[in-house]
Amino acid sequence: MNSFPQLLIVLLSTIFVEVSCCTFPTILEKKSMEECWNEQKSLNVSDPAKHCKALECFFKKNNALKSDLSLDKDATETYLNNQLKDNVEWLKLVKQIAVDQCLVNIEKDYTKMMDFFKTNNMELPEPGTCSMKPMLMSICVMAKGFAHCPENHWNKGSTCDEWKKYLENCTNNIENTLEFYKQLDKAQ
């Protein structure tokens, strides 16, 4: 059984670190994320639960995840406005992706996504440990941000262009997105 949080690691390390296709801005504020990660490191829970809990912590610290575990549109917008205030081009793109696409789709299709992960034997955190919405949101924003990377931030090359085309096609609806997760899982 594979760990769903590893999907995020595979995606990010492949298209952002190893290949450097897109000069993507820092969206997750480093200090808060490190604090959240440090709170989880010593817990006696599975690695998927640690990743999930760290992102949940981060979203809660920034009010983007409500107490009922729904994603907060206004808080997400406020966070992005603050985090990307010096980069208007990315702010406009990331807000449109995060707020108008990812957040809406995750809230609408969350149960369907979780059922898909279970049906495909992807290792999830233990039930009740944390909400997967922050992780799904992070993956969605990164994948769609990559697929729509502005030309002046794009590093052209065959590998990058192939990834971009793939992500443009595989993140345009829930069925394609779920298939994308399945393909990433197979790549591990």
Give your account of this protein's structure.
The protein is mostly helical. The protein contains eight helices and two strands. The relative contact order is 0.18.
List keywords for this structure.
single chain, mainly alpha, 2 strands
Q: What is the topology, as strand order, of the major beta sheet?
A: 1-2
What fraction, in percent, of the residue positions are helical?
55-70%
Low-confidence stretches: none
| Overall outline | globular
Rg computed from alpha carbons, rounded to a whole number of angstroms: 16 Å
Main sheet specs:
2 strands, parallel
Helix-strand pattern: EHHHHHEHHH
> Which structural class do you get from the secondary structure elements?
mainly alpha
Count of β-strands: 2
In percent, how much strand structure appears in the residues? under 5%
Output mean pLDDT: 84
The tally of helices reads 8
Distance, first to last CA = 11 Å
In short:
With 188 residues, the protein is mainly α.
Task: Lay out the secondary structure.
Elements: E1 2-3, H1 4-18, H2 30-41, H3 47-61, H4 73-83, H5 88-119, E2 122-123, H6 133-147, H7 158-170, H8 174-187
Parallel strand pairs: 1-2
